[in-house]
Amino acid sequence: MRSVKKNTDSQRLKISGQEFALLIKAVVEKNVPVKFKVTGKSMFPSILSGDVLTLTPYDDRKPEIGDVIALSDAQNNQIIVHRIINEMNRQFLIKGDNVLKCDGFFPCNQIIGYVCDIERNKKKIPITLSKNKRYVILSKLRVFCLSHLFLLFRKI
Amino acid sequence: MSFTADINAIYQPSENVISKDIEGQFMIVPLISGVGNLNEEIFQLNTTGSAFWKKLDGKTSFGDIMVSLTLEFDAPYETIKKDIIHLVDQLIKKKFIFEVR
């Protein structure tokens, strides 16, 4: 039996992105919340690289616009943690706060769970409904502004 | 205190762990305060350990599992026994399994 422990690199277990995704899914499928560390800048400034997230299954409520959710990216065998920015025909439009391109529309069954807790430097960062809605507006606004800027420059 | 094997003992995985078979090797995530903490500890069983874990159904005795593993791995009984006793000792200490009877 090999173990992995935080800050003990000599014992660190090498887990691929796919294995990590499978483990997250396995835990959430048992209706148990799961804690894991994230890397990347796609959710800046709401989630920073190195933040520890707690993902909870959607058993008590339905997905809503503004929720930060996790879904499995079948192409890259990874877990994506991005935000629901729209809903259409029971499909959810997912996008990172800090990226222009949307991930696409996903049905509810492809969403693993939602982020209920963010831990940064061992301090909890509160997630509020108003904060989530603000990020959705900002995210949409960014796409709108940049796409119009792009069109403007093309005309010039 | 070291673990002494009772061939009639029956073990079962604890409810406080979640295991997942990934390409023939089991990964174990202990639940800490009801949360699976992938940031703290994940355990991976080797091939023999995974085969043992798979057979922990709360019905089959330790002795029967050992015989079954000996046949499966085509290895001497004593070698398998030594490996598995060490593993069971660790699993009990970490409270990943418990004795049913």
Tell me what the structure shows.
The complex is a heterodimer of chains A (156) and B (101). Helix content of chain A is 26%, strand content 35%. Chain A contains two helices and nine strands, in the order E-H-E-E-E-E-E-E-E-E-H. In chain A, strands 2, 3, 4, 5, 6, 7, 8 and 9 form an eight-stranded antiparallel β-sheet that branches. Chain B is an alpha+beta fold and 101 residues long. Chain B has a single domain, classed as Coenzyme PQQ synthesis protein D (PqqD) (Arc Repressor Mutant, subunit A, Orthogonal Bundle), CATH 1.10.10. Helix content of chain B is 37%, strand content 27%. In chain B, strands 2, 3, 4 and 5 form a four-stranded antiparallel β-sheet that branches. Chain B has a two-stranded antiparallel ribbon with strand order 1-6. In chain B, strand 2 (17-22) and strand 3 form a beta hairpin. Chain B starts with 10 loop residues before the first strand and ends with a strand. The interface between A and B is medium-sized, with 24 and 24 residues.
- Overall structural class of chain A, as computed from helix and strand content, comes to alpha+beta
SS field, number of helical segments of chain B = 3
Based on CA atoms alone, the radius of gyration of chain A comes out at: 17 Å
Largest sheet entry of chain B: 4 strands, antiparallel
Shape of chain A: globular
* Helix proportion range of chain A: 25-40%
